[in-house]
Amino acid sequence: MELFSEYFKKDHILSRIDARVKLLVALTILIMVLSYKGFVLPALVTLFCLFLCITMKVPLRVFMLRFSEPVFIASIILFLKLFFSGKDVLFSISLPASHFSLFTLTGYKDGLMDGLMIAIRILGAVSIVAVMGLSTPFTEFIAGLSWLRVPKGFIEVLMFAYRYIFVLFEDAMVIYNAQKNRLGYSNIRRGLGSFSALTGSLILKAFEHSHNITTAMIQRGYDGNMPMLKHKPFKLSEVVVSVLFITVMGFVWKI
Amino acid sequence: MKRQNTEHRTQKSESKVKNYGMLSLIAFLLFTVHYSLFAVSEAYAMHISEGILPFNWAALWFVVALPFVAYGLYKLKKLSAVDLSFKPLVGLMAAVVFIISCMPIPVPTAGTCSHPCGTGISGILVGPAISILITAVALLIQALFLAHGGLSTWGADIVSMGIMGSFAGFLTFKILRSMKINMAVSGFLAGLFADWATYITTSVELASGIKGDSPFVPLFTKILIAFIPTQLPLGILEGAMTAGMVVLLYKKRPDLLVKMRVLKPEEVTA
After folding, report:
1. What's the gap in Å between the CA of A150 and the closest CA on chain B?
2. B105-107 and B112-114 as β-strands: parallel, antiparallel, unpaired?
3. What CATH class has B44-269?
4. What pTM was estimated for this model as a whole?
């Protein structure tokens, strides 16, 4: 399993910025992109984030993986809006193109514009989160969340989940390979049985691991609360640059 | 003569528009097919992607999801005060739901792969309140580091996958078990309805978010129909998997099902 934060570059300027600052800037720009009715701001944000991804030397495969789902969904929405929403007819196609056409596909201009606006909004929003995910290690992100007063219980569950995703994924791979070598996925019926056994085993392992780690943690003084990272004070330069950046984006948003 | 010229010009511009339309349709289809076949190996039907919902709709779904997540946290605090291993267990269950909902399973009718939700089984095992919390955690990690779902659509995804999926799975299982229906059938229907409830809610969220000035119902119907080739068989597959998981747990570790209050002690001894 590949998580995108594994690709973050320690030596990049963005990776050295406080996670709290990045989180606040990303959330502010995200809200601006979502509430903006036009093309300029999301397009600008997308281009800027793409530039940052290039400077971070994100591998092309990772980049494609990250953007393939949003691009796919954006194209489906564009299709739906173009052909099924709007009043202003842009073009009309009879299929098949003869006198005895079975149906007519009509594209609408306002639908196309709406679809394009949603598509660029998706790309803008995805770019922001992608850049944040690619430049912030998970532990720093969690520290940022705790600074934002996200409930402690939620953060603790998040930490346990993140820690054990990799352990359980390795367990799942061992079971999956053993099943595959014994033709466990040779047809749909067997595949379903094998997959159920795999996921059932994962749940059993989750129970076992939770029992074991609780015992180990109690031995080390765990009383139901986990210590959180202590926050350093903000750097003035980071705050000033962030405020300036948000102000510039705010002007574009207002236009 | 002038009229003929005007007609000729109109015909010419009409054929130009048709050609333009045909070209854009072909380009669009090629683009979509390319992405469907080569770039995207999985259909991500359950998660609403980042940026699809405009700000007001995204905020509304956050407001809907918030009390449920808060109640989940309250239950977590209460239960972990009694049993210290409960918090790690919830974290590990979130990891399991994360892994399950990342695993591609082939959908024969759609010709693609899709992923199960896993919320049906977590709803059955830990109850809907904790299951919503588990889904929220799994969705946040997926949104940030795996590009499934998004931060702005986190609320909407919690409502569809967490709230609707967990409640549908939990209630179906409880009702069927109270009617003395066997484990496999109860598990199957719980998984099936959890998946379909998620799919219908996702369609409602998508249609309301992207409808603009157009009416809601026709767009909702179109999205619902567009999802059918993937989600209808996927629901059946998820039902079968949930049944398999419940039966496996029942055979191997019935004590766990009693501990999680899925079964009464007398049901195991019987």
Report:
1. 11
2. antiparallel
3. mainly alpha
4. 0.83
